[in-house]
């Protein structure tokens, strides 16, 4: 596979991105996030980039990608540079994993899919169960051809990296605490990358200066900060924002029947008017912004 060139924003310094996974239709919460990232860059003469996080080949769909592009245009958002697809950058993630292998900071894990699913360790969102380290230090002789993922030896990695900080708009300077997240998956059984590895490599490759995303990914930033240090990558500023929820406080991503942007678009609603309402904090009836 040919390596893609480094893609940097055109503006003087500020580069933001919207990085949806094309595993479903976008909802109002995605619009809220994309508008914030877009406006932060546009208001500062910077660049707004679009990255499609489609490493999960089994759940990603081309039709969702098409809907995402149409939804963003409907909201009146434009992006700079070509759209980046993570599925075209697997060689980059494999190279980063090799770097960590050479440092002795990752190990193969043979735990079953059911174990991993139970611990929900590959999902970017939500409370992550901590992997108990079952496969850390086991003898893998003769087993390496069995299906396995690769995990970060977080304790060893944190010791190598030493104390680390990152900055968040709301929380201020945060001491990175990646070890408490346990040995996260960096390469899956079915893909040479996990969310954590791909997002870290790509934010650096795209020159992202300000990561603007939901507060549900705040905890993941501890892991990303550690990976940045290990891989010698720069650390962006982080601006984690509140999530939109239904009136019952439940996150839109978890709700059944939350209206999708595509449905509103196809029903003839005015996307630019919706975007302006969201900018002004006027949420449609039945929605709230929650800081948790
Ligand atoms: N792809 C992730 C998602 O759709 C977002 C990743 C990020 O913004 O860091 O939730």
Task: Describe the structure using short key phrases.
292 residues; alpha/beta; Rossmann fold; Glutamyl-tRNA Synthetase, domain 3; three-stranded antiparallel sheet; binds glutamic acid; Glu/Gln-tRNA-synth_Ib_cat-dom
Task: Describe, in plain words, how this protein is organized in 3D.
Residues 14-270 form the Glutamyl/glutaminyl-tRNA synthetase class Ib catalytic domain. This protein has 292 residues and is α/β, with parallel strands linked by helices. The protein has two domains: 15-88 and 242-290, 3-Layer(aba) Sandwich (Rossmann fold), CATH 3.40.50; 90-198, Glutamyl-tRNA Synthetase, Domain 3 (Glutamyl-tRNA Synthetase, domain 3, Alpha-Beta Complex). It is built from nine helices and twelve strands. The strands form five sheets. Strands 1-2-3 form a three-stranded parallel β-sheet. A three-stranded antiparallel β-sheet has the order 4-5-8. Helix 6 packs across helix 7 (218-231). It is globular, with a radius of gyration of 19 Å. It starts with 14 loop residues before the first strand and ends with a strand. Glutamic acid binds at residues 19-21, 53, 124, 199, 213, 217.
Structure at a glance:
By secondary structure, the chain is α/β, with parallel strands linked by helices. Helices cover 33% and strands 17% of the residues. The strands form five sheets. A three-stranded parallel beta sheet has the order 1-2-3. Strands 4-5-8 form a three-stranded antiparallel beta sheet.
Write the layout of secondary structure elements.
Layout (H helix, E strand, L loop, with lengths): L14 E4 L9 H15 L4 E6 L9 H13 L9 E2 L4 H13 L3 E4 L3 H7 L29 E4 L1 H8 L3 E4 L3 E4 L9 E3 L7 H11 L4 E5 L3 H14 L5 E5 L1 E4 L14 H6 L4 H9 L7 E4 L2
Parallel strand pairs: 1-2, 2-3, 9-10
Antiparallel strand pairs: 4-5, 5-8, 6-7, 11-12
Helix pairs in contact: 6-7
The structure holds glutamic acid (GLU).
């Amino acid at each position: 596979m040919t390596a893609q060139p480094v893609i940097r924003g055109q503006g003087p310094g500020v580069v933001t991105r919207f990085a949806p996974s094309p595993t479903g239709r976008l909802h109002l919460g995605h619009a809220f996030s994309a508008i914030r990232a877009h406006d932060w860059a546009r208001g500062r003469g910077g660049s707004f980039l679009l990255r499609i996080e489609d490493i999960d080949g089994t759940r990603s769909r081309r039709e969702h990608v098409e809907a995402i592009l149409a939804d963003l245009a409907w909201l009146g958002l434009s992006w700079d540079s070509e759209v980046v697809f993570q599925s075209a950058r697997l060689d980059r993630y494999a190279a980063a994993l090799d770097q960590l292998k050479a440092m002795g900071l990752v190990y193969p894990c043979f735990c079953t899919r059911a174990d991993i699913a139970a611990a929900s360790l590959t999902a970017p969102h939500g409370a992550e169960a901590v992997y108990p380290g079952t496969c850390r230090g086991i003898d893998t002789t003769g087993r390496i051809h069995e299906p396995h993922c690769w995990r970060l030896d977080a304790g060893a990695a944190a010791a190598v990296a030493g104390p680390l900080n990152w900055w968040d708009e709301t929380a201020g300077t945060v001491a990175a605490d990646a070890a408490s997240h346990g040995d996260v998956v960096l390469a899956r059984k079915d893909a040479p990358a996990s969310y954590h590895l791909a997002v870290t490599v790509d934010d650096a490759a795209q020159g992202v200066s300000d990561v603007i995303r939901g507060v549900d990914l705040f905890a993941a930033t501890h892991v990303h900060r550690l990976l940045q240090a290990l891989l010698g990558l720069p650390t962006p500023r982080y601006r984690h924002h509140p999530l939109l929820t239904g009136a019952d406080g439940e996150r839109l991503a978890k709700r059944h029947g939350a209206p999708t942007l595509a449905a509103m678009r196809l029903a003839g609603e005015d996307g630019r008017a919706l975007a302006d309402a969201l900018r002004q904090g006027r949420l449609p009836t039945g929605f709230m912004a929650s800081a948790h």
